[in-house]
Design a protein that fits this description.
The protein has 2 helices and 3 strands, in the order E-H-E-H-E. The protein has a 3-stranded parallel sheet, covered by helices on one side. Helices cover 27% and strands 19% of the residues. 10% of the residues are buried. The chain has a domain of 58 residues. With 99 residues, it is of the alpha/beta class. InterPro entries: FBL15-like (IPR055312).
Length: 99
């Protein structure tokens, strides 16, 4: 029996070293009805993800967003308004601050 050797890292051609292409990936999340996101800061990357999530989750009904404690109430309200501007009208969006 050969002794097990510890692997020090992935090979150079490993898929985990490649940048993710989630911004161009087309998915269908046809069972996702409710989403809860915590510690949202309202960054550009988070906004991009949310836009895609609304497009991918074809039966989404409810989204609850809890903002990081560093996010001001005014910025949280503004972010929720922006989310409502690009989601389907039947999706309920609730925003709250992390306590």
């Amino acid at each position: 029996m050969l002794p097990l050797q510890a692997q020090t890292g992935c090979p150079s051609d490993c898929v985990c070293d490649q940048p993710p292409n989630w911004k161009t990936e087309e998915l269908t999340l046809y069972c996702l009805r409710e989403v809860e996101i915590q510690n949202l800061r309202g960054t550009e990357h988070e906004t991009a993800l949310m836009k895609r999530l609304f497009r991918w989750a074809t039966v989404l009904e409810k989204m609850t967003v809890t903002f990081h404690c560093s996010v001001a109430d005014s910025k949280a309200k503004e972010f929720c308004q922006m989310l409502r501007s690009f989601c389907r009208p039947e999706i309920s969006i609730k925003g709250q601050r992390f306590a």
